[in-house]
Model the fold of this input.
Amino acid sequence: MPELSATGLRLAYHDLVVVDDLDLTVPTGRISVIVGANACGKSTLLRALARLLAPRAGVVHLDGRSIHAIPTRQVARELGILPQAPVAPEGLTVIDLVGRGRAPHRSLWRQWSTVDDSAVLEALRATDLVDLAERPVDELSGGQRQRAWIAMAIAQGTPILLLDEPTTFLDLAHQIDVLDLILDLNRRQGRTIVMVLHDLNQACRYADHVIVMKSGKIVAKGAPGEVITGGLVEEVFDVRCQVTPDPVSGTPLIIPIGRHHDGKAG
Amino acid sequence: MTERQAPTRRRDAPTRRVLGVCAVLAAAGFLVFCAGMAVGDYPIGLPGVVSALLGSGDAADLLVVRELRLPRALVGLLAGVAFGVSGAVLQTVTRNPLASPDMIGINAGAATAVVAGIVLGFGPGVGTQVLGLAGGLTTALVIYALAWKRGTTGYRIVLVGIGVAAVCTSTTDYLLTKAQIFQAQQALGWLVGNLGGRGWEHVRPLALATVVLVPAALAMSAWLRTLQLGDEVATGLGTPVQRARLALLLTSVGLVGFATAAAGPILFVALIAPQIAQRLAGLVRPPLIASGLTGAVVVLTSDLAAREITPAAQLPVGVVTGALGAPVFMWLLARRNRDA
Done:
């Protein structure tokens, strides 16, 4: 299993430094979720881990080598990325989109094979899209569309999968659908998952490892039950809250208080 | 749940429909190619043209076909293929069906260079072909440099290109106002796209460019498939996005540069041929070979029509493609706005 880590990262857009001097080791074979307030640098960090953004300083290591020193096709066989809100060309069918996930495994000399075929079919089955395979992606519902993109990433067959807010724009049922699917990928196939999520409660439920960021720095990391406390949430999100065990999963459940309630029930 | 059958064909292989479309287009292209050599002041039957091409038949037919009419037909054929493939590549790279070399200023730059050569008097020494090629390539590099901001995006290339096209067009217009009347006439004859008076010296460079650059574009079609999903997804799938886009743009510009140098900026072919081919083939992006064949059919048919409609006036081919292309362009534009 390839390992992903970063040391001394400085990330910036133009002159604006978003992340500075950040070290991170992604636990192999686990689900890591990056959380934090808006503009804290969580998506930026994920983009850097996926080599979509070149660091100003520091290195992202994939299996001990600088990710920018490895040919991009080779990286694409180890690490898959699903960016935020990707757009499929008009009329592209689900199965064609999923098939394009096989691109890093193909070349002019290596023809489409039964391995590619079974990877595509397996991805369609895992995302429950077999019956929609010939439908154009742009005609699907938001949840189905997101599943189609995840299917493409699954077909890519990488041991590491990075996802940037995979549940954005989805209703509650579809959010749970997508997160359950990602959990399956990890538990059944042992893939390393790193994702950015907005919802803290979902993060606590689905993460083995949370990475809490504030102003471009990691302020806490570890198992959600050990890391997420009322004090930390107040510090990071600037909102008072109570933390109780989630009645369903036992993981921390964050209940924000706000100005109009005093935090004492009854 | 009823389990559907596993996908068994290569998901990116040409479908039977694409192959069928290519076969029909190739047959149609060959027909108009021969028909174009049959008509004229000295009419020759289609069988006569074919046997002359094969090197037999009447000696006079042989001379007329091989020395006089074949170069013109070949320039039309090759320019059509080059415009079609070039447009297909550019439209896919920029993810914009309205992007074509005529829209983003490559043709306009070639035109400015050629007209400058004619009007300022250094044209005859350098040659229209060299000027057209140099003008097109220089314009492409200027667009690429201006669109560069830690890498390029297809969108910025289109926007910058439209601006550069406007600058080139006004420069050409300015040069024309400064020109002598005979120079202006000569320049306009070239500007509209013309196959008249083309000889083997026009065929050779274009043929070489087509033979090199069309296979190059085909070899890079895997990049077209991933780039179409956006830069970030393409990177994730292992495409070296900046390098791939530059290589594809250079291929597209090279094709259109050589074609324009030989035949003039024949309007709208690079824009509409890929869109027609895409709809015929029922695909989500313009198929390269079918786009090239469509381009050839459009140019050769337009040239034939131009000569048949007004045999005396020798209407240039660009007038017909312009008249044909404008409504298609409007339709594409209207359709895109309706969808958006």
Summary: The longest strand of chain A covers residues 16-26. Chain A touches chain B through 44 residues (CB under 8 Å). DSSP finds nine helices and twelve strands in chain A. The two ends of chain A are 51 Å apart (CA to CA).
